[in-house]
Amino acid sequence: MRARDLMTPRPAMIAAGDTIPHAAELMRLLNVGMLPVVEDLASKHLVGIITDRDIVVRHVALGHGNGSKVRDHMTRGPLVTVSPDAAVGDIADRMIRNQVRRIPVVDARGTVLGVVAQADLATHVGPTDPAIVERVVEGISRPGALVH
Q: In angstroms, rounded to a whole number, what is the distance separating the alpha carbons of residues 85 and 91?
């Protein structure tokens, strides 16, 4: 199985210049925890990602206003991505190595094609290879360093 077989195609995206409240509302409406951030919605060129956690930790907790832009709070490069031809093992290894639950699928130009989430692995790979799903869940659930 390849990324193209697992991914959610044509995911919702947000432009770097959009506001944080817009990103949060889009996440709420779509019931997602991550949005690929693109230069603009026409090009779909990946420049970052924004997660619900980014919004809480980098925006809300620091008391930033509603006019804040996604570009000011998103995760920037180096971004963890895969090509549509990436094999399941490579996707799992990247998730574990980088402790991420979702990986954008991009073409050679950096255009967003889809997203592979931990849930996609569980749904598509779990029935035939539950060990790989278990390995990913364990690997990305390692505790991070404590922040003081």
A: 10
Specify the pTM: 0.88
Instruction: Give domain 3-140's CATH superfamily.
Output: CBS-domain (3.10.580.10)
What pLDDT is stored for residue 57 in this prediction? 86
Mean pLDDT by 10 residues, the chain (148 residues): 95 96 96 95 95 86 81 90 97 93 96 96 91 90 60
User: In this structure, what DSSP letter does residue 71 have?
Assistant: G
d(CA 128, CA 75): 33
> What region does 112 belong to: left with phi over 0, alpha with psi -120 to 50, or beta?
beta
CA–CA separation, 106 and 127 (whole Å): 26
Q: Domain locations in the chain?
A: 3-140
Q: What is the pLDDT of residue 148?
A: 41
Q: Distance (Å, rounded) from C-alpha 10 to C-alpha 124? A: 18
